[in-house]
Amino acid sequence: MQNAIRNNWSIEEIYEIYNAPLLELVFKAATIHKKFNDTAEVQVCTLLSIKTGGCTEDCAYCPQAARYNTGVNVHALMKKEEVLSYAQKAKDAGSTRFCMGAAWREVRDNKDFDRVIEMVKGVNEMGMEVCCTLGMLTETQAQKLADAGLYAYNHNLDTSSEYYSEIITTRTYNDRLQTLDNVRKTGVSVCCGGIIGLGETHEDRIKMLHTLSTMPEHPESVPINALVAIAGTPLEHNQRVDVWDMIRMIAAARILMPKSMVRLSAGRTSMSIAEQALCFMAGANSIFAGDKLLTTPNPSFEEDDAMFQLLGLKPRVAFKEEKELVEEMIN
Length: 331
Ligand code: SAM
Ligand code: DTB
Ligand code: SF4
Description:
Layout: H1 11-18, H2 22-36, E1 41-51, H3 80-92, E2 97-102, H4 111-125, E3 129-133, H5 139-147, E4 152-154, H6 161-167, H7 173-185, E5 189-191, E6 194-196, H8 202-213, E7 221-226, H9 243-256, E8 261-264, H10 273-281, E9 286-289, H11 301-311, E10 314-315, H12 320-330
Helix pairs in contact: 1-8, 2-9, 3-4, 5-7
The structure holds S-adenosylmethionine, 6-(5-methyl-2-OXO-imidazolidin-4-yl)-hexanoic acid and iron/sulfur cluster.
């Protein structure tokens, strides 16, 4: 049993963890989860697409890439007031983290970025953890977001470095790593994970887990997405992700990164409560809530509320780490 957070996992060790008999793997992950976290707690995050579609990139899974005919409604950057009213609704429904997504390749230093900065300030002032996912960032841009009160930045590796170019050709894996580094330097917390079901091998998944778990600091959140296959994208006919693969991936992430929030992300609409319960058992402790992810459906607040009641789960409070630090200093 691992007692410490490790950043020196070898591929062989990860291979063994990932390939363990399923229930043994879940049991091990659950034990580690219990040791490092409050297992009754699940972080509830809400996503909002603040700029939708028309993206220049060719990410093969993405409904928002301009080059695929996916029928997504293209929308310019929303107004700040409108975004804040969505954030308030999410807060009222029990979300503690609000994540704003933009279909951009990268952030540019223009009026749109200034507006996003104002949105970040506004959501932060509402007492929610504010997160953004805006594509590539320079260190200066990351610092501007940090100064505005950004709590977390989401930037996924999506898959292994080897498989990456099969899925995206308009930027490189190193571009991704560079942005993550820029974010890390500013002290903003890092949200970084991937997608399964892209046509990758188990080895690719193991390699992605290796990259994540050997970062000098583990990402504070690790979203595990099941591909939502979208008509019009090159991956539209991909086979649906096997729920056992999702459970295996979550359990492995939990064992490798014991204290990170492992998020059961895209794909919940096609999972039963029993299947989601196994994911929580295997160490998932974060979800996206609200009836829409960015452009695709997600279970409603009411459905998730009922699931939390049934499973005895409670939403994690906002800024928990900071609150615990303050308590430690007082006592
Ligand atoms: N444009 C920015 C970027 O690519 O970083 C931010 C938004 S992008 C939609 C955020 C993430 O959503 C992607 O990195 C990918 O992991 C996830 N995603 C997008 N489409 C998806 C799909 N069809 N199924 C599962 N995850 C998806
Ligand atoms: C993440 O890992 N998953 C979210 C969030 N980070 C930005 C996005 C999922 C998108 C699913 C497809 C859609 O709704 O457009
Ligand atoms: Fe654009 Fe992000 Fe979609 Fe890629 S994942 S096409 S960068 S919105």
